[in-house]
Amino acid sequence: MFDFLLKRLENYLDVTQRNTARPVDAEMQRLASARRPAMARSVAQSHEPALQASKLHKAYNNVEVLGAVSLQIQPGEVVSVIGPSGSGKTTLIRLLNGLEQIDNGEIQINGNLYSPRPSGQQKPRFMENAEHRLNIGMVFQSFNLFPHLTVFGNLLLAPRYHHLASDAELRQHACELLHKVGMLEHAWKYPHQLSGGQQQRVAIARALMMRPQIMLFDEPTSALDPEKVNEVLQVIESLAHEGITMVIVTHEMNFAFKVSDRIVFMEKGRVVCDDTPQAMRSGQHPRVEAFLKDVSLA
Fold first, then answer.
1. Domain boundary among 211, 232, 259
2. Could you give the CA distance from residue 2 to residue 146 in angstroms, rounded to a whole number?
3. Is the pTM higher than 0.90?
């Protein structure tokens, strides 16, 4: 009897065994469509770039992955980072978000420097400045949703932890964002009940819950089936039209050339070219032209 009850308890606690979800009620539908004042966090006004990286260097086991990479992103700008596999694109975006420590160089957000360690310590580190960290949102290749939480729970976890607003405001904001990315009807489902495209749209909404000033996308469609790619790209494109500052690492060339203000081409851990889509198309950069020779740009 004890073993039977224990097995029943394990099955109950295992969220991956749950294949049903309660429907979205009328209150959530109302919250999704209600008009309310913006719940934005205050960001100090500055004439500085939103994000600036200077001479970033990163090596793993004495193998250089990034060498003297510099990048400047203005507020509201959309920059796509392209290049062959192994060129350091993902490493760059992980350094920008503080997921990896830089070996040399510096990163500034709104003119605020992430400081190196005191003299005598070799590697620099990021300052523990919560306000600056909260200004950056990240969307990963593999979604990284919390499997034990519902879609709604995934969105509410971080802003509740940081006391971003009242619970009522957060719930309304979550409903709005889920409606925006077309996922409100799935609010009470768990990640395992969603397709890859649906999970990535939830991941985008989750990142937006923190009202970030800058959004980083690390190949957001690389783990998706081809038929699911477009639904995610449409969401990202709508964000670009809203003026959100974005850095997008992608292999979707037509998408990059369509939505970007600038395109950065990387190879062997270095920035080979940083120019507008129009200049890239015109054949001014031979290496980029060779990279795109088999791509039919719309």
1. 211
2. 31
3. no
Token pair 């507020």: residue:
75
Residue 38, in any domain of the structure: no
Beta bridge partners of 214: 136, 245
Alpha-carbon gap, residue 164 to 39, rounded angstroms: 9
- Contacts with 239 (C-beta within 8 Å, 6 or more apart), sequence order: 204, 208, 215, 246
**pLDDT for residue 98 is more than 60:** yes
φ/ψ (deg, to 5) at 120: 105, -15
Contact 154, 174 (CB under 8 A): no
Question: Which contacts of 124-130 are long-range, i.e. CB under 8 A and separated by 24 or more positions?
Answer: 125/101, 126/98, 126/101, 130/162
Q: Domain for residue 146, yes or no?
A: yes
Look at residues 191, 211, 231 and tell me which one is the last residue of a structural domain.
Answer: 211
pLDDT at 195 over 70: yes
Mean pLDDT along residues 256-283: 92
**Cβ proximity of 217 and 250 under 8 Å:** yes
